Amino acid sequence: MPFDVVRTALDSGVMVLALSGSMTMGSQLLELEGAIQELIKKNQNRIVVDMSKISYLDSSAIGALVACHSNMKNSGGQLRLAGVNARVSTVFKMTGVDKVLSIDQTRDDSVSALSAGA
Amino acid sequence: MNSLPAFSSTLDSVVESADGAEESVRRFAHDAGFEESDQYFIGLATREILINAIQHGNRFDPNKKVGLSVSTSHNDLIIEVTDHGEGFQLESVPDPRLPENLGRRSGRGVTMALAIMDEFSVDRNSPGGTHVRMAKRLPVI
């Protein structure tokens, strides 16, 4: 089940990764992790992952998001998730990751939170 | 409701097997009268247990298959998954919601299936290998 990633670099220095589709176990999750790791290496330490067009995700995708969040935190940056739909939110709560991930209602909320912390 | 005809399938131990199988289970849940949201989550629980069987049970061994069967009883939708691994004890599965486990990369699939389904059991000594049985109460129409 594939998903797409569209990158947008904002003037504020925040990078937005807009995802769409279904996030499930597979090479694309590794590519997403690799892409975020590359951004961290380039000192891009404020990232919004826009989830508003993600309709489905499995436990492997949750693991990848937790790993990305943790890598970013360890490098002194912030990664925020935006626009998580109700079902994905339910899955986050089922597994408790809503307590560790930084989640905002909208992409603008996430961008504001990161811009305010700059 | 009358029982639906059960279906069963033998799957290769590759991740892609879960895609079609999940879709079949969702359709079955639809035909059994579950609303769309329940179909979604029943499909997700099925995917998680299939991936467990493929990854941890059969360890992606091309010579080992995963069995899936779906049926209804008087009250329940029943999903059964078998693999040829050593199995696991439910009580030994770490709770991913505990603070010390929240940052772990894996280990959430069984917890998700437990949260979604009404019954969940594991038989490590089934003749065909490890046998996971999940049940969800049928909607009252």
What does this structure look like?
The complex is a heterodimer of chains A (118) and B (141). Chain A has helices at 27-41, 59-74, 86-95, 107-116; strands at 3-9, 15-23, 46-57, 78-82, 102-104. With 118 residues, chain A is of the alpha/beta class. In chain B, strand 2 and strand 3 form a beta hairpin. By secondary structure, chain B is of the alpha+beta class. In chain B, 38% of the residues are buried. Chain B has helices at residues 17-31, 36-57, 109-116, and strands spanning 7-12, 65-72, 76-83, 119-126, 129-137.
Number of strands of chain B: 5
Structural class of chain A: alpha/beta
CATH class of chain B: Alpha Beta
What is the 3D form of chain B?
globular
Q: What fraction of the residues of chain A are assigned to beta strands by DSSP?
A: 25-35%
Q: Give the mean pLDDT of chain A.
A: 94
| Spatial arrangement of strands, main beta sheet of chain B | 1-2-3-5-4
The biggest sheet of chain A, with number of strands, parallel, antiparallel or mixed sense and barrel status, is: 5 strands, mixed
The number of helical segments of chain A is: 4
> Percent range for helical residues of chain A?
40-55%
Q: Let me know the largest β-sheet of chain B.
A: 5 strands, antiparallel
The CATH superfamily title of chain B: Histidine kinase-like ATPase, C-terminal domain
User: Uncertain runs of chain A with pLDDT below 50, 5 residues or more?
Assistant: none
Which architecture of chain B per CATH? 2-Layer Sandwich
* Proportion of beta-strand residues of chain B: 25-35%
